[in-house]
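It is worth pausing here to work through a concrete case rather than discussing structure prediction in the abstract. The textbook approach is simple: state the sequence, then state the predicted structure, then interpret. We follow exactly that order.
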Amino acid sequence: MMKPVALHKGDRVAVVAPAGAPVKEHLLEGVRVLEEMGLEVMIGRHVFDVEEDGAEMDRKRVTDLHDAFFDPSISGIFCANGGFGSARVAPMLDYERIAKNPKVFWGTAILPIS
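Step two, the predicted structure:
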């Protein structure tokens, strides 16, 4: 297992949604919490996209994940929610290239608990 450098105030992080689109208000509340922790948050381009064609949506989710892992300015990645969609995109990931770009990866939801 590779251990990435811990996150610090001022670090830039990405929020992606590999399992599907979250409720916008919930995600924005989670983003607010991350910003209060001193992190600069970038939301993936396709986080709020709704399913059109399943295969096309999976490709968009993979693009957001790859963009986050391969962007050297991103120190950590948070998933907006979990679910079956994550299993669908897993085979599409470039694991070799991801391994060369280790980052903090938080795979559970950042949504507020109600």
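Step three, interpretation. Residues 53 and 65 are 19 Å apart (CA to CA). The longest helix spans residues 54-70.
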